[in-house]
Amino acid sequence: MAAPVALVIAAAAPGAWIVAPAAGVMLLVLVLLDGLAAGRLEDLRLITPADAEVGEPFEISVLVDISGRKGNAPPSAALAFDPRLGPGGRAEFPLGLDPSGAWRGGIPLTLSRRGTGAITHLWLRWSGPLGLAHRQKSQQVNRDIRIWPDLSPVRSPALQTFLRDAQFGLIARRIRGEGSQFESLAEYQPGMDRRRIDWKTSARQTRLHARENESERNNQIVFAFDCGQAMCEPLEGLPRIDRAVSAALTAAYVALKGGDKVALFGFARQPELATPFISDTRAFHRLQSAAASLDYHAQEPNFTLALATLTARLQRRSLIVLFSDFSDPTSAELMIESVGRLVRHHLVLFVTMEDAELADLIAAEPEDLAHVSMAVTAETLARQRAVVLQRLRQLGVDVIEAPWERIGYRLIDRYLEIKRAGAIG
Questions:
Q1: pLDDT tens, 256-300?
Q2: Which residues contact 356 (CB under 8 A, 6 or more apart)?
Q3: Which of the residues 85, 165, 187, 330 could staple to 117 if both were Cys, CB 3.0 to 4.6 A apart?
Q4: Which residues pair with 52 in a beta bridge?
Q5: pLDDT at position 189, please?
Q6: Of all helices (H) and strands (E), which one includes residue 171?
Q7: Domain with 104 in it: what CATH number?
Q8: Are residues 198 and 117 in the same domain?
Q9: Do both 73 and 182 map to the same domain?
Q10: 295 and 406 part of one domain
Q11: Residues 224, 229, 232, 234, CA torsion sign
């Protein structure tokens, strides 16, 4: 910029040509002085949690100490990280002066997927008091954040209150009067179910006697996850598989409290995960860790191979809770065939989440031909979905279809009904 000015001055007043170079040197000196007045970086710290849960908001903070700094312009920081920590894999934010004299700033993020998300790089930039010069610090970070399944339903006060209720019990205990396993005989009292009267014993006595049963215990429950393309589609901000994992772990915690054994099984094109059966709530963290390792696959699942593998692993009749979804009739047909073979030897509970987007498209007022076409397509898909679920019911499969926020509690209710009825063993 100084060269054109120097040429103009030299043409207008040849003797004053030195003014432009002198001004350039003066500006350079000012830039250097401004850079020196910007201060020296003494300390730079990145503050992050080591663990977090998927869908949970958390904050990444930067703490900076700059000595000898003049001026009030705030520094700014930038981060590069794994996209599962936040959209785009990059964030920039200003820092503010805290009461201790250090500069502090942070950015709130929401975790979108399970696994390990790494923060790889940190940049810091601050200016001098005149704003002519900036200093910058670039630093490799390599900080890992482990992202776990969402366990907020397990910690919810409602569930903890339910587990402390006298009918269920906080510790494993016998539940008399229900179930199918014989416990003892007791004198019949008014109000008891007449079907529990033991007529042979009563015939030998002078009073009626009723059978006291206890709920079945030590049942095997397998939570099977379809990790294919349909289950990786987002549902209100999180993939369906993450909604399913949260509901399954909540029900698994209740089952462990009830004295049953729980295992996890995950599959896509081939089996991805198969845990041993866990029978103690103190080992619940093993289920949580295993569920965190379930990956996301942009491919159709192989139900035939997966469910055949699962059947070969089970040595006795079990309750199999299958979380899945389907996007076309062809994949649904293969799923129905495989589930039909599974239901011959085990009790199968099929869990799927209602598609609110389809319902909204069907219910929306059409504004043009494009909206009409979308509504017709959505209604066709909804009908195909209803046909598939009805065919599963006809095979003897118990089906739960509900909004994602109610899936966990619906699953717990159905599990307790099955347990009381003694339908697993």
A1: 988 899 999 999 999 999 999 999 888 999 999 999 999 999 888
A2: 235, 236, 403
A3: 85
A4: 147
A5: 65
A6: none
A7: 2.60.40.10
A8: no
A9: no
A10: yes
A11: negative
Alpha-carbon gap, residue 92 to 121, rounded angstroms: 12
Same domain, 280 and 367: yes
Question: Does residue 356 sit in the same domain as residue 336?
Answer: yes
| Mean pLDDT value across the chain | 81
**Pairing assessment for the beta strands 90-94 and 176-187 based on DSSP bridges:** unpaired
Distance set, CA 289 to CA 116, 208, 257, 264, 271 (Å):
12, 53, 19, 11, 17
Q: How far apart are CA 340 and CA 324, in angstroms?
A: 15
Residue 11's φ and ψ, nearest 5 degrees, are -75, -40
Q: What is the pLDDT of residues 186-215, one digit of tens each?
A: 676 675 656 667 667 777 777 776 665 555
Distance CA(242)–CA(255), nearest Å, equals 20
Phi, psi of 108 (to 5 degrees): -80, 135
Considering the domain architecture, whether residues 334 and 232 belong to the same structural domain is answered as yes
Q: Is residue 356 in a domain?
A: yes
Question: And the tokens for 2?
Answer: 């100084």
- Residue 282 DSSP label: G
* Domain with 399 in it: 152-171+216-421
Q: DSSP assignment of 387-409, as one string?
A: HHHHHHHHTT-EEEEE-HHHHHH
Nearest CA-CA partner of 118 in 80, 72, 173:
80
Are 151 and 89 in contact by the 8 Å Cβ rule? The answer is no
Measured distance CA(124)–CA(122) in Å, rounded = 7
Asked whether residue 20 is assigned to any structural domain, the reply reads no
Query: What burial class does residue 244 get, using C-beta atoms within 10 Å of its C-beta: 0-12 exposed, 13-18 middle, 19+ buried?
Result: buried
Q: Is residue 29 part of a domain?
A: no
**Residue 268: inside a domain:** yes
What is the number of domains present in the chain?
3
For residue 20 the two structure tokens come to: 């432009």
How many other β-carbons are positioned within 10 Å of the β-carbon of residue 83? 12
Q: Which of 81-95, 124-138, 257-271 has the lowest mean pLDDT?
A: 124-138
Residue corresponding to tokens 């996890």:
264
